[in-house]
Design a protein that fits this description.
Layout: E1 5-7, E2 11-17, H1 22-27, E3 37-43, H2 46-59, E4 63-69, E5 85-91, H3 94-110, E6 114-116, E7 124-130, H4 135-141, E8 149-154, H5 156-169, E9 173-178, E10 187-192, H6 195-214
Antiparallel strand pairs: 1-6, 2-3, 3-5, 4-5, 6-7, 7-8, 8-10, 9-10
Amino acid sequence: MPVLEPLVPKVLTVRRLPGADPALLRAYGADPERHRALGLVTVDQDDPTYVALDEATKHAAVDVVYARSFYAGSRHASGPLSGEILGVLAGEDPAEVDAGLDALLQTLAHDACFYAADAGGNIAVFPHVIASLGHYLSAQAGLVAGTPMAYLVAPPMEATIALDYALKAADVRLVKAFPPPTETNFAAAWLTGELHACEAAAMAFAEAVVDVARQPRER
């Protein structure tokens, strides 16, 4: 398989509210008894941001209280700073929220991103492996924090074919499937198993997406 070209996420906004109003905290899922500060980000790629939000929980005393993808993706955003997702971290200490945001930004810059699966960069794939889940995605997946997980995303047809390949390529278990259409009109799946198995499944997923991109009508 050729080396996939990374499509690095673009962070559009990063803001902090060191002492958010209790009504706002409650509206966005925070607990005013435990949370005082909020850190907010918008990004043009949603799935890498979910991974980055989870990473923040491993580096700071923060909770992910809000994270939602926007309908139809970043190309149809409501404004130039909206992107594809709004993520919100909450914590008691503003310094902890800052530390969480720092970890999030590092993850988006150097770790989690989509990749181009075709020469023109029109088909994107997210074959990401999380070696150790934080307490956000582990709760979403129903897994124990620290468990490895393959986080796999592609357009509908590509993802469907590639998920079959991934499940057969390694000793992994399907934790959760997101059939099309997701909010961004993709499809996704979360797989778990030993770290090496998750990595093999993610590689098989990426290879299958590339194969469909090259031969879309090959039966």
